[in-house]
């Protein structure tokens, strides 16, 4: 699917380039025709200058007839130019709509349709860019893994529609609690990942604490009677040279350690 979208985008860009080249060629043709007509007019009026003759073969008395002979040619050419420009304009409009649809489809393919946050494909696409940016700036980059506790029981007790609502509510809570510069991804069924630029490990833990406080507040006024959200979280730094899978593994292990600690405390 990704290869098809890349090929479609490449074809659209080529078509745009072809139209721009055609427009430029039309402009050059127009210029050459005007220069040719001007040269022809001068040649007819001053042949002695162009061909080194001493006696003009065409005098100014023929100027009105000459101008009248040029008028149909100029009108025909301008009509052709206008027609070609209209064709180019329509082609651009069609191509722009196609490109807009392609960009919309590409954007939708990177978004989870249920929660409205990014999906795992987007994480795979953006993590390398964020890590390269952090390396260039010498800044920190952290990753946060979040998992809903006992989410399967939600679907069992309340049904899948309520389960979907819980996922949407959690995604909205994460967007409101974290910064606009942070990237929120639905990683799996009930797992979310947050990518936190300009954030070290300690700052990521503080961000997790803000999320837990927001969860507590949500539970106090839960729109789903009889249900309270339980959330486990693990954070890990995205160190230089580390892969996404390595950072995810560390965050995942810490998340399950936190989950096990909370279960033993209960």
Note down, in words, how this protein is organized.
It is a single chain. The protein has 266 residues and is of the alpha+beta class. The protein has two domains: 2-109; 118-265, 2-Layer Sandwich (Alpha-Beta Plaits), CATH 3.30.70. 68% of the residues lie in helices and 11% in strands. It has eight helices and five strands; from the N terminus they run H-H-H-E-H-E-H-H-E-E-H-E-H. Strands 1-3-4-2-5 form a five-stranded mixed sheet, with helices on both faces. Helix 5 (151-158) packs across helix 6 (160-177). The radius of gyration is 34 Å and the shape is elongated. The relative contact order is 0.09.
CATH architecture of the largest domain: 2-Layer Sandwich
CATH superfamily placement of the largest domain: Reverse transcriptase/Diguanylate cyclase domain
Task: Give the strand content.
Answer: 5-15%
Based on CA atoms alone, the radius of gyration comes out at 34 Å
Overall shape: it is elongated
Q: How many structural domains? A: 2
First-to-last CA distance: 46 Å
CATH classification, class level of the largest domain: Alpha Beta
Helical stretch tally: 8
The ordered string of helix (H) and strand (E) elements is HHHEHEHHEEHEH
Give the total of beta strands: 5
Q: Structural class, judged by helices and strands?
A: alpha+beta
Oligomeric assembly: single chain
Q: What's the CATH topology name of the largest domain?
A: Alpha-Beta Plaits
The largest pleated sheet is described as: 5 strands, mixed
Estimate percent helicity: 55-70%
Q: What spatial order of strands do you see in the largest sheet?
A: 1-3-4-2-5
Average pLDDT level: 75
- Low-pLDDT windows of residues: 1-5, 48-52
């Amino acid at each position: 699917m990704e290869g098809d979208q890349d090929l479609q985008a490449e074809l659209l860009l080529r078509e745009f380039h072809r139209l721009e080249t055609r427009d430029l060629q039309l402009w050059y043709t127009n210029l050459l025709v005007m220069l040719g007509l001007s040269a022809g007019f001068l040649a007819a009026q001053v042949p002695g200058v162009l061909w080194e003759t001493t006696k003009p073969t065409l005098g100014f008395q023929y100027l009105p007839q000459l101008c009248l002979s040029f008028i149909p040619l100029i009108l025909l050419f301008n009509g052709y130019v206008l027609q070609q420009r209209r064709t180019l304009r329509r082609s651009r409009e069609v191509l722009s709509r196609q490109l807009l649809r392609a960009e919309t489809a590409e954007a939708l393919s990177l978004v989870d349709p249920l929660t409205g946050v990014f999906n795992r494909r987007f994480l795979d696409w953006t993590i390398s860019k964020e890590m390269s940016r952090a390396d260039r700036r010498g800044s920190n980059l952290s990753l946060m893994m979040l998992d809903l506790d006992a989410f399967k029981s939600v679907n069992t007790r309340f049904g899948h529609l309520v389960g979907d609502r819980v996922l949407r509510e959690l995604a909205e809570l994460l967007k409101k609690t974290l910064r606009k510069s942070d990237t929120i991804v639905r990683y799996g069924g009930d797992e979310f990942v947050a990518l936190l630029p300009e954030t070290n490990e300690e700052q990521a833990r503080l961000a997790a604490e803000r999320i837990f406080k927001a969860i507590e507040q949500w539970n106090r006024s839960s729109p789903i009677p009889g249900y309270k959200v339980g959330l486990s979280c693990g954070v890990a730094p995205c160190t230089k040279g580390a892969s996404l899978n390595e950072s995810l593994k560390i965050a995942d292990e810490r998340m399950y350690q936190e989950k096990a600690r909370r279960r033993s405390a209960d």
